[in-house]
């Protein structure tokens, strides 16, 4: 009986060994087939309509392509909260996402966190606000930028404004966050258009993309420079602040406003002749362009990261009515 028992145990052990050593090919293949790339969209403040529109566009795209990828949408409460946005990058890496599509709140400060993500094997695509080229070189990484030419877009807006002004007129500029590349480029575009038209920029200050701060600064500008004929705002949220300041100063008939982003509130302001023009960088599609670029890179890892320029269009009352801007 002892021999029979020992023989039975040996046969049982061999059987267990065969089962544990054999690869579970059915489970692995099922996992490979069912797993979809996980993409994290990391934006700036969702309190800004531009970014809530961006999020909605991305979510709509994922719904239409649910079989292709999964999407996680993140944003920060305050566009100046760089540490929180960097922390979100780390959280997404720890969560095991395959790609990060980011609209960085700062062109330099987010680069180290993104370098860590790349080192962890995550594909990174930069949208909306271009990361600083020199800092990317210092960190020895390449991150493709998918987005519009902000300088060209702002220049289009500035040139449209110049048609309403005379040579020698004075204007002021509400800048975005000064460490943001898109803010820098829009400022340059505005200044180029004014210089070419012989219009003087008498004041230029940062309102950090915020409506309330723009209202306060614009009020001060109008008080210190009563000769101002227009305010050029580097985003539409600040344009709304400028409108309120102009209304409070009883200057609605003689001070014009232009913006950048084409949010719904400014579309209405254009219809009401409170804003002359804005630029549409197609916020509802901007994240989609970035997601599609990330999916291509995930599908073919041999693809070299490369920039993609996306559209930016001038929006006026005429264009909204379907009239030619020529």
Description:
This is D-ribose-binding periplasmic protein. Residues 39-299 form the Periplasmic binding protein domain. Belongs to the bacterial solute-binding protein 2 family. The strands form three sheets. A six-stranded parallel β-sheet has the order 2-1-3-4-5-11, with helices on both faces. The chain folds into two domains: 36-147 and 283-309, Rossmann fold (3-Layer(aba) Sandwich), CATH 3.40.50.2300; 150-280, Response regulator (Rossmann fold), CATH 3.40.50. α3 (49-64) packs across α12 and α7 packs parallel to α8. The protein is 49% helix and 18% strand. The longest helix has 20 residues, at 2-21. With 326 residues, it is an alpha/beta fold. The chain is built from 13 helices and twelve strands.
